[in-house]
């Protein structure tokens, strides 16, 4: 009797160890794929993924799958991306990381319809999915659709806001400017402490023709860096305020080529 119990216990222990090893192995594969992607070895990423995939797709971690999709995106390899989608289709209902990566892959490969279908069929949407759709539309020269997607988001993330500002800068319409102003009023407190948001908003306002409002945000920012100086100088040059552009240039330490070209454009207006 005791031998049977001992045997049963050993079998349970062995099964537990095996499951733990498989899970740890799957996690290690994800980390290895990530390192390959970071070093831009995208073909090797996919080779490693397919070597270890076999029939074990149920134990592939989200990290492993999203890194494989990232490699497909960079290579514009939509066929292998679709194959991975088929492989993990049962997991798209409850894994927003995979869904977001798939949407991004389809959009960056130019398959807008597949991205839209996946997005529309996803019941519980998270900000990253909206962001992937917006970026995709912008990449595919459909900024107006990206603009419309933004207004479906209940609580935009920082990334959503940055992409929205890029969309408005691309559209350069009165509708975009009006929407931009509403967002700025709502998120005003965030901009003074978030350099990325501040820079994106200044650039969007300049592109939409509201240099005066851009200037107000610019003046409140501490620790300014080259991108926001460039955006503000561009606005001054666009509105024939050469003196302001030149005065701003004098505040910049270590200007880059873009800043110098803006200075030359300002000088040409004198």
Automatic annotation (TrEMBL):
Q: What is this protein called?
A: Uncharacterized protein
GO-annotated biological processes: RNA modification
* Matching Gene3D superfamilies: Tetratricopeptide repeat domain
Q: Name one Pfam family in it.
A: PPR
GO-annotated molecular function: RNA binding
Q: Matching PANTHER family, A to Z?
A: PENTATRICOPEPTIDE REPEAT-CONTAINING PROTEIN
């Amino acid at each position: 009797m005791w031998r049977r119990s001992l045997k049963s216990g050993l079998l349970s222990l062995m099964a537990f160890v095996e499951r733990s090893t498989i899970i740890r192995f799957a996690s290690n594969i994800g980390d290895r794929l990530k390192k390959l992607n970071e070093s831009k070895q995208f073909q090797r990423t996919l080779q490693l993924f397919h070597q270890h995939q076999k029939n074990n797709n149920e134990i592939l971690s989200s990290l492993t799958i999203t890194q494989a999709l990232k490699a497909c995106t960079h290579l514009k390899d939509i066929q292998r991306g679709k194959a991975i989608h088929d492989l993990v289709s049962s997991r798209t209902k409850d894994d927003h990381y995979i869904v977001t990566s798939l949407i991004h892959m389809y959009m960056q490969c130019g398959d807008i319809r597949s991205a839209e279908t996946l997005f529309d069929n996803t019941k519980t949407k998270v900000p990253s999915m909206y962001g992937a759709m917006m970026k995709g539309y912008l990449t595919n020269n459909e900024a107006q659709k990206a603009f419309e997607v933004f207004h479906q988001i209940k609580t935009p993330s920082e990334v959503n806001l940055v992409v929205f500002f890029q969309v408005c800068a691309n559209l350069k319409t009165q509708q975009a400017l009006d929407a931009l102003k509403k967002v700025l009023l709502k998120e005003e407190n965030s901009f003074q402490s978030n350099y990325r948001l501040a820079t994106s908003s200044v650039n969007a306002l300049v592109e939409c023709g509201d240099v005066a409002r851009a200037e107000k945000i610019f003046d409140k920012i501490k620790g300014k860096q080259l991108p926001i100086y460039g955006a503000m100088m561009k606005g001054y040059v666009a509105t024939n305020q050469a003196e302001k552009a030149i005065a701003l240039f004098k505040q910049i330490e270590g200007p880059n080529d873009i800043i110098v070209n803006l200075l030359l454009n300002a000088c040409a207006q004198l």
